[in-house]
Automatic annotation (TrEMBL):
GO terms for molecular function: kynureninase activity; pyridoxal phosphate binding. GO terms for cellular component: cytoplasm. GO terms for biological process: L-tryptophan catabolic process; NAD+ biosynthetic process. This is Uncharacterized protein. The keyword Amino-acid biosynthesis does not apply. It comes from the Eukaryota.
Amino acid sequence: MGTNVKSTYHELMNEAASHGYDIASLEFAQYLDSQDEFKEYRELFYVPRKKTLPQTDLSLVDGESESVYLLGNSLGLQPKQSRQDLMEYMDKWAEMLVFIYKYNLP
């Protein structure tokens, strides 16, 4: 383990112990979620249901539950604002043709 990983691991161990949690417990995970300073941003993104993802074995999971997205080298979750922004740009393109590139780049 690198130094940063060891440090983070020990910080998590100490945090869990200070609140009486096992580091691998659901309760500790829920506690960490409650402390997440970025949690309000979650509502700005589409989070697919497991049933919509390819290769999901619905005999093993609840298809209605949200997926867990851990792939860090991709486009990521789609921001909800993207659809509206794209449609506005498409409308401008329809009105301005090629001139959109000169006068109306976002």
